[in-house]
């Protein structure tokens, strides 16, 4: 598995403009590989995605998408994920709540590039770059909190998860 995103503490803000998200940033504790690097790795559409979230109560949630890839920068690096297997719920393609699901083909947004489908400007409101549809059910790049708060949560149907640490990894199929 190849690490593409990790949050282990709040020392590094993920509330950044387009260029750092495109090029990558971070250290061994808090890391974003970079949209261009992820696109280059996954453009053959032969990768899977694993999302790991450890909540404040010590529960580990692991979800896998059997198909994962990004589109090119000219389309704002849209996310494509399908074939969900896991415990937490399909946050990218929830037919019960399509507007809050990220969904296939949703472009990436940052505080200086509003590409979401909401009038709220989700990246600025939630403080982190992500594939927002209508401000989404999941954002692993939002404000990092050092204690549980119901203001910032991740909704993995049917659970509300208060994340403490998280990682996104990809693997060639």
Describe what this molecule looks like in 3D.
It comes from Helobdella robusta (Californian leech). InterPro entries: Fibrinogen-like_C (IPR036056), Fibrinogen_a/b/g_C_1 (IPR014716), Fibrinogen_a/b/g_C_dom (IPR002181), Fibrinogen_C-term_domain (IPR050373). This is Fibrinogen C-terminal domain-containing protein. Residues 1-173 form the Fibrinogen C-terminal domain. The protein has 173 residues and is mainly beta. The protein has a single domain, classed as Gamma Fibrinogen, Chain A, domain 1 (Alpha-Beta Complex). 11% of the residues lie in helices and 31% in strands. The protein has three helices and nine strands. The chain has helices at residues 18-23, 35-42, 122-126; strands at 2-7, 25-26, 31-32, 47-55, 60-70, 79-86, 154-156, 159-161, 163-172. The protein has a seven-stranded antiparallel beta sheet with strand order 2-3-1-9-4-5-6. Strands 7-8 form a two-stranded antiparallel sheet. A hairpin with a 2-residue loop joins strand 7 (154-156) and strand 8. The longest helix is centred in the first third of the chain and has 8 residues, at 35-42. The radius of gyration is 14 Å and the shape is globular. The model is unreliable at 149-153 (pLDDT under 50).
């Amino acid at each position: 598995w190849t690490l593409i995103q990790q949050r282990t503490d709040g020392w590094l803000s993920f509330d950044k403009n387009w260029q750092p998200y495109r090029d990558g940033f971070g250290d061994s504790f808090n890391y974003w590989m970079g949209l261009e690097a992820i696109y280059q790795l996954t453009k053959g559409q032969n990768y899977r995605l694993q999302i790991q979230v450890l909540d404040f109560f010590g529960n580990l949630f692991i979800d896998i998408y059997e198909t994962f890839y990004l589109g090119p920068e000219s389309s704002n690096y849209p996310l494509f994920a399908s074939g969900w297997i896991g415990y937490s719920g399909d946050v990218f393609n929830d037919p019960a709540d399509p507007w809050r699901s990220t969904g296939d083909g949703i472009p990436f947004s940052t505080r200086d590039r509003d590409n979401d489908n909401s009038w709220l400007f989700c990246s600025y409101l939630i403080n982190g770059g992500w594939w927002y549809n209508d401000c989404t059910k999941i954002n692993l790049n939002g404000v990092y909190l050092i204690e549980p708060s119901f203001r910032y949560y991740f909704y993995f149907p049917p659970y509300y998860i208060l994340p403490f640490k998280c990682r996104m990894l990809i693997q060639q199929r």
